[in-house]
Specification:
single chain; 332 residues; alpha+beta; Uridine Diphospho-n-acetylenolpyruvylglucosamine Reductase, domain 2; Enolase-like, domain 1; 4-stranded antiparallel beta sheet; 10 helices; 12 strands; binds flavin-adenine dinucleotide; binds iron/sulfur cluster
Length: 332
């Protein structure tokens, strides 16, 4: 690991300026992703700016919703009674991630910005367009089990690993950012990018942009919501496929629905096509299956030496159907 300077700024503005003014500076929050990357030699900053004390570590009521300071720890957020009651999918998503110790360190601002767990990205000796633009993509034809099926490109087929981010996508959360040009907001569904021909960029953030808070709008439908994560082990494993969903059914008809998918794309995947297909339809299994099929119409599997990831396509359908069936049975 290369030596670097370490700074503890007085406030958010000083933190933002310290990073924005130095191309080789990075923010350090809980450090559960960044410190691994320093050790693996994936990033080589000259300056590490500790932001754990410069943004709020509280969850407060605002406009009927909740405003989550970027420094709120994942374990505190998952246990907040208002989150459990009004946004259970978010609490469930957080609790399905990592381990108790990691959740005690990980922050609301850092979690959505964690980088892909693609094994080749984390291995400095292999070609990877995300780590070294133009070097190629070792995942295609390699270990493809965890790679994406939606929105991939010939340059990168990686998935975004955050569970929390899938729930935030379904909840239409809003990200508050402080950058060199002042404060701005970004709809959560627009924070992450698809890889296209520039997979090295995970998000639309610019260097120096500091996430200060994440806002959850008042979302009554989310009171009855679920997060289901399908993985190789019961704990301490990233999602093969995950589904965050909420549904409002009246007289057997879907009045409104929210669905987001994890483990399938370079970003948390909001399933707008499935939602559209379901609104106004009978809340029955055949329609849930058709809605999933509508979302997966452009899904493409990646071939790999491990058998590839074609299994994810039917797995998404089965998981969507199962989560919606559970929610609608509770609804009746
Ligand atoms: C063994 C292991 C298993 C895991 N399993 C899971 C899992 O199953 N599901 C899951 O979702 N996650 C999992 N994780 C990932 C973990 O949740 C993330 O590492 C964590 O949430 C990152 O948050 P952090 O505060 O530690 O971020 P850091 O590591 O401090 O930062 C991550 C990145 O975000 C940037 N950053 C942080 N905060 C801000 C901010 N406020 N504004 C702008 N930039 C910022 C940093 O510069 C860095 O680039 C696992 C991690 C490990 C090590
Ligand atoms: S899938 Fe993306 S992250 Fe993984 S090796 Fe290919 S370019 Fe790198």
């Amino acid at each position: 690991m290369r030596a670097f300077d370490y700074q503890v700024p007085a406030d958010a503005l000083a933190a933002m300026r310290a990073v924005a003014g130095n191309d080789s500076a990075v923010f350090l929050a809980g450090g559960t992703n960044l410190v691994d990357h320093l050790k693996l030699g994936l990033t080589h900053p000259d300056l590490v700016v500790d932001i754990t004390g410069v943004t709020s570590d509280e969850v407060v009521e605002r406009d009927g919703g909740l405003w989550i300071g970027a420094a709120v720890r994942n374990s505190d957020l998952a246990a907040d009674p208002r989150v459990c009651e009004r946004y259970p999918m978010l609490s469930e998503a957080l609790l399905s991630g990592a381990s108790g110790q990691l959740r005690n360190m990980a922050t609301a601002g850092g979690n959505p910005l964690q980088r892909t767990r693609c094994g080749y990205f984390q291995d400095n000796t292999t070609p990877c367009n995300k780590r070294r633009p133009g070097s190629g993509c070792a995942a295609v034809g390699g270990h493809a089990r965890y790679q994406g099926i939606l929105g991939t490109s010939e340059h990168c087929v990686a998935t975004h690993p955050s569970d929390m981010a899938v729930a935030l996508s379904a909840l239409d959360a809003v990200v508050h950012v402080l950058g060199p040009d002042g404060e701005r907001t970004i709809p959560f569904t627009e924070l992450h990018r698809l890889p296209g021909d520039e997979p090295s960029r995970d998000t639309v953030l610019h260097h120096g942009d500091l996430i200060t808070a994440i806002e959850l709008p008042d979302t009554p439908i989310a009171r009855r919501s679920r997060y289901r994560k399908v993985r190789d082990r019961a704990s301490y494993a990233f999602a093969l496929v995950s589904v965050a969903a909420a549904v409002d059914v009246t007289d057997g008809v879907v009045r409104d629905v929210r669905i987001a998918l994890g483990g399938v794309a370079h970003k948390p995947w909001r399933a707008y096509l499935a939602e559209e297909a379901l609104r106004g339809q009978a809340a029955i299994e055949d329609n849930f299956r058709e809605a999933a099929a509508a979302e997966l119409v452009d899904a493409r599997a990646v071939d790999g030496m491990d058998g590839g990831n074609a299994f994810k396509i039917p797995l998404v359908t089965r998981t969507v159907v199962s989560v919606l069936r559970g929610l609608t049975q509770e609804n009746q």
